[in-house]
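Hi all, posting the design record for the shared folder.

TITLE: backbone redesign
STEP: 1 of 1
STRUCTURE INPUT:
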């Protein structure tokens, strides 16, 4: 779908076109058969966040992640491909470690739990996720419940 020409956008087409014309640039590196684009390499004085969206890996949907530098919120890399959940989990851990042990946020709906489990099994040091038995996230509730990442039943 070409959102710029469809006319059915939340953001006006002229604004989208401006971003396309002035902000889009070629990556400095492509990895994983061209599925990961890198615009900036990790700067070891900065903090990053990696946000992963999980697909099953055997269907028509894609798994993807985006890496942002926290202070500027500039996107520095992205990935999109069909990949198995376990492989995607290992990739996210490796990429997170490369980008200064970035805060790793993984979609935990359905298949996402398999990816989260890889990060837990590998003791990823900076993982954020909500617990499957809680219908909403409230950090005070989680602190009061004294959850432990090692308790896989939670």
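Okay, here is what came back for every position:
SEQUENCE:
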């Amino acid at each position: 779908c070409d959102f710029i020409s469809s006319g059915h956008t939340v953001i006006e087409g002229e604004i989208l076109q401006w971003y396309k014309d002035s902000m889009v640039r070629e990556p400095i590196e492509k990895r994983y058969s061209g599925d990961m684009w890198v615009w900036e390499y990790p700067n070891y004085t900065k903090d990053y966040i990696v946000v992963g969206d999980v697909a099953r890996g055997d269907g028509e949907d894609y798994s993807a992640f985006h890496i942002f530098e926290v202070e500027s919120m500039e996107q520095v890399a992205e990935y999109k491909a069909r990949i198995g959940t376990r492989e995607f989990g290992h990739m996210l851990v490796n990429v997170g470690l490369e980008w200064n042990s970035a805060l790793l946020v993984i979609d935990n709906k359905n298949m996402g739990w398999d990816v989260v489990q890889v990060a837990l099994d590998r003791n990823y040091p900076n993982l954020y996720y909500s617990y499957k038995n809680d219908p909403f996230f409230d950090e005070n509730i989680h602190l009061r419940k004294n959850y432990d990442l090692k308790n896989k039943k939670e």
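COMMENT: The beta strands are 29-31, 36-38, 48-53, 63-69, 74-81, 103-106, 127-128.
Let me know if anyone wants the other runs.
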